[in-house]
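Review form for a predicted model. The reviewer records the input and the model, then writes brief findings.
Reviewer: anonymous (R2)
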Amino acid sequence: MKSSVKNFYLIYLIFLSIGVHAQTPAKWIKIQTSNGTVMGLKSDSTLWAWGNNISGIIGDSTFNNSLYPKLVSKDKKWKDFELSSSTSNGAFCIALCADSTIWTWGNGYYNTLGNENIFWNVVNFNRPYPKILNNEKWIAFNGTSAIKKDNTVWVWGINVYKDSFGSGNTKQIIYPEKFRNSADWKFIVDQITTGFGIKNDGSLWTWQYKMYGNYPYSYSTKIVEYQVGRDKNWTYNKNWGLMKTDSTYWAWEGDSIPTQILPSNFKMKLITKYKSKTNVGIKTDGTLWAWGQNIDGFINKTIKVDSIFSSPVQIGLENDWNYFSNGFYYNSSPYYTTIAAKGNGYCVLGDNQYGQFGDFTTIDQNTFSCLNVTNSIDEEIVNDQIKVYPNPNEGKFTLEFNQVNVELKIFNIFSELIYSTEILDTKNEFDLSHYPNGIYLISLKSDKGTSYSKIVISK
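Model under review:
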C-alpha cells in the first residue's frame, strides 16, 4: 500500500491526458509546517493549506482537517506568509497580499491576529478565515511585528512577559502600535520571552525579561535591553536568520554571543533545523546540505546516529530544492513532520496523523519520500458532490453523483484507463476487487464539465 501511496502523485499525468490544468504547473516556492498543519505558497501567488485545522488555520471557514491542499481565498494573490505556532491549541498565520495589505487568521489566543480582542477567550479565540489587519500598506513582517512602507515598525500581541514593545507597561496590544522610536529600527524579531532588533546603523540589540509574582494574576516584569557587541554590519532575512554584510552566517540564541556558522563563500538561500539539532540549508544552486547532529541518520544513515558533523554535507545530488520546514506538535510527546519543496512537488517525512502530507492518507513515512506532484489536489479536482463509500474499500463501492448521463472513467496511478462506462443513475455500485491495492482516480464527465474523486482499494 505504501508504494502505491508514494506513486499516487504520478496521477497528475492523468490530468494532462484528459486536458485538465494543461498550463505550465506552478511550483511550490515556500512551504511550512507547524502543529500538524502545512501551508504553501506557489509561484502563481496562490496560497494553500492542509492538515490539522483545529484553529481554523486552513482558512476555509471550518475547523475540519483536510487530507489534501485547499486554496486560501481564491480571489487573492499573495507575496509571502508565515505559519507560526501560538499554543497547543493550534497555529496562526500572517500573510502579505499582492496589494501590500496584511491578513491574519487562525489561533488568536495571545492577540496574535492584531485586529480584534479575542485574547484568552476560551470559547472563540480562533478565526477560521483571513481578515485584513488594517488598511495600511506594508513591506515586511515577522511574527507579530511588521514594517510599513514608511519604514516604521509596528507590533501587536501578548505583552505580559516583557516590555519588548516599549509601551511602558504590560498591557495586551490588540491592534498594531508603533515600536519605540521605530524610525531607528530596520528589523525586529519579537518572541514570547525574548526579542532582538537591528537598527538602521547596523547594530544588533536584544531585550529580555524577568518576571516576579504569581503569573498571570499578580506579576511584574523587568526588562533588560542591551546592544550585542559593537559591530554595525548586521542584517537579517527570515529565510536564513542573522547575517553580516560580508555575507557570513551567524547563529544566536539571544542569551549568548553570536557564533559564525558558515563561511562567506557558502551561499545559502535557506537555513533551518531538523529536530532542533541538525542544521539544514539550501544553497543558491538548489542543492541540499546538512550539518550538526546526525539525528535519525538524517545526514548519513551509514554513520552512527547522533554523530556530529562540523562541516556541511550535501544530501543527495539533486539541485532542485526550494524550501525546507520541520514542525512538531505535542500529544504526550513530540511528533515531528518534515516537508520540503522540491522540483514540481514536495518531499515528506515523519508523522502524518492529520493528513499533513496532503496525499489523502494519514500514513506516516519513516524515510524521506518525494511526491512528484505538479499541481495541487484542490476543489476543482476533488468534488464534494461525488460520494464514494466505503472508502477505502476492498474493491466494492457505491458512487453517488447528482447528475445522470455521465461518462465515467477510472485510472490507475500509471495513467492507465482501467474502467469506463456511462452511468444513467445518480447511485451506482461497482466491483473492482480484481484490481490490486492502490489509489485510483475517478473522472465523471458531463455537459457541465468534468468532476473528480478518488478511491483507495485496500484488501
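Findings: The longest strand covers residues 204-214.
Further findings: The first helix runs from residue 2 to 7.
Recommendation: see findings above.
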